[in-house]
């Protein structure tokens, strides 16, 4: 099935994946080259799991989970399969975030550093708690088949908004975390003297912001939404090209524009089937 | 003219204004009660202009500027007048941000502290530069009457997205700034020991996040958009209640739902007239 502005979508998606991967490489290089590496020993190497798991799981994986419905190659898959992938990626991201919290609390406790004193920890814990609430509500409302359709429709704008809000809060929290770690971790030369580690990790922070910006752009383009199930079912499955297999040949936005226009109701509330 | 879910809108708007005002009171109390007050002396009292002007101008005023088209009381005003108010508030917010930058550079220079070494300064300066670009492009495309309509329509999704992205980046930058200032400014007891100032300013950070969250919620509800000029012109100006004057009497969403349904085209590209 053709997607409006397919080339722009492909460019945005490639940019997001590239910037995301580079961010992961950056956090690994930070930890292994500039810092103490990874271990589970109550020391700084245990703390290092915190940024690694956050960037890999809570930022990259959550970002991909957010845009997974947008991939036109998945439009031939059933909606329920895509929901399981969306939920699965988010649950995986949550597990990464939970382990990263254990790492930092364990590190603080063995080093006699207080927990939960900083704005970073306040906003971060709130984001993790809201994320788990979002997961539980999402599974109950959209994966358990008994929830009535009107409830699914009514909750969808809130589900989308809070997903993007939590994702943005996680990125803001990561920026505070980077700030804290560069101030506490760099002594002689300190953060102020801009040693190579400081500049390198500042770039990581900028990469995370760009990754977040691209994910939010993809997630908020109405024309890149997965078409409704009625539209997908109404498409010819032979002759005109089967659904989802000839994406690259149909990039003209006028090509099958009719199939993309949805009622204002669906546009407002998201798709609920 | 009636607005869908008017009571919810009123609640969200009141919450945003209240939380915004409380944030301003918090930053003033931080500066005057816990810190050195305000002055232009190259010392810490000059630095204090930085958080005060950012919270007042770059966060609160920018937030109000973003949602100003949503206020149903303004729907009787001409679109061009609302555009001038939107632009004017944003220009005022930019001036506040610019002075706040002068304050911090001037403070750094007189104290021999390096400039632009931190992630806070990188993301913050990028946000100010993008904001000025957004202002110039916004004025050229939407206020200068010669720009062709197709260009206004094509640019609108980008204008909306980048406005919200810059606003979110400013809030993320403020959270990094609070983190830096509490680490550098608190010694014996330090940030880790949670003195009253630390807890108080952490709350300020949380208030700023909540303010941002409410503004983004209001700005992204499709049913709260200012109706298109065609719709506003087609409304009766007597008998059925004149436009904009009887908002509180027409809160039933079914009341004049027909006037609110716009074409998919307008929904996607925003309103350009």
TrEMBL record, chains A, B:
Membrane topology: Multi-pass membrane protein
Sequence segments annotated as region (Disordered): 235-273
Entry annotated with the keyword Cell inner membrane: no
Compartment annotation: Apical cell membrane
Principal EC category: translocase
Enzyme Commission number(s): 7.2.1.3
Pfam families given in the database record: Cytochrom_B561
Cytochrome b561 domain location: 15-220
Basic and acidic residues: compositionally biased ranges: 249-273
Keyword Transport: yes
Subunit structure: Homodimer.
Protein name (record): Plasma membrane ascorbate-dependent reductase CYBRD1
Source organism (scientific name): Hucho hucho
